[in-house]
Amino acid sequence: MTEFSERRTTESDALDGFTLDELSEYLDGGRSPRNAQIENSPGCLIALDGLTRLRAVTAAMVVSETATETERDTAWISAVLGNISREARAGRDIPISHTDPSIELVVTEGSVRGMIRAAGDNVPGVLVGSCTLEGDVTVPHEPIVVAVNASVATGLNVTEVAEVLRHSIRQVLADHTELNVVAINVIVRDVHRAIESEI
Amino acid sequence: MSSLLDLSRALTEIVEATEGVRKVYPASRLRELMAGTIFDAENEGARVSVHHRGGALDVFANICVDAEHSLPTVLRSVSDAISAALKSTALTSPTLGGPDGAPAHIAVTASRIQ
Asked: Minimal CA–CA distance to A6: which of A97, A115, A104, A99?
């Protein structure tokens, strides 16, 4: 840990003491009254972003599905919720280069994971279950593998959707990081019933 | 510039005004957040951390970057804006550090991309 990173939050407190249930309740209340601690916590805000997108899709799914399918998806959604909380934590410092050695620039692993999740969720028919950055992201030029688990809406061509997802992730990583991404592995572990916006 | 708090306020305004910055988070640790110290009215505008460490002026900004902008470009713009501000005689003095006093270290972290 560098002297600079000592001043930031640690892995264990990255959501600043708020559980996902508490953040979910805060979202239920329309983020009102405003909680300054949550609204000033990047980890909480990344988790809220993920929760908001997940809710938008799953609410439509639940309406359209049978009871059996809903039970199956509830388990999957619970797992996704756990991943959103874990991935929102600040994690490792990913360096950004600068010519002046007295200047240290980093982007947090949590913000990059949040960005990957957002890019995936924005692909029609895709719900990102988890995403992981494999390799030492703290060292410039190290080869990094991005691993994404996703659910794809039924009726869509999984291979094509996976390619669109891979392209979307590669683009945001190129725009916002200096990571040496050598592979983006997309694993489609689940399917969910397509909702109107995904068809 | 009479104090580190004033310098922090000035740097917070500069960082907020940098293109591609959506928000400046309080650059404080959890215990300070939980204690509510950073939300005191007096400190509300002072979200860039400025203090002395090992004879140098230490500056730390924690920001949210607009996804429409290139994150590396925004981080460099922020650090360069801080560096330029510290070189300004209006923002530094021998007692505060910076080019007129001790050398400065600048750290900028992007904690969220929105």
From this structure: A104
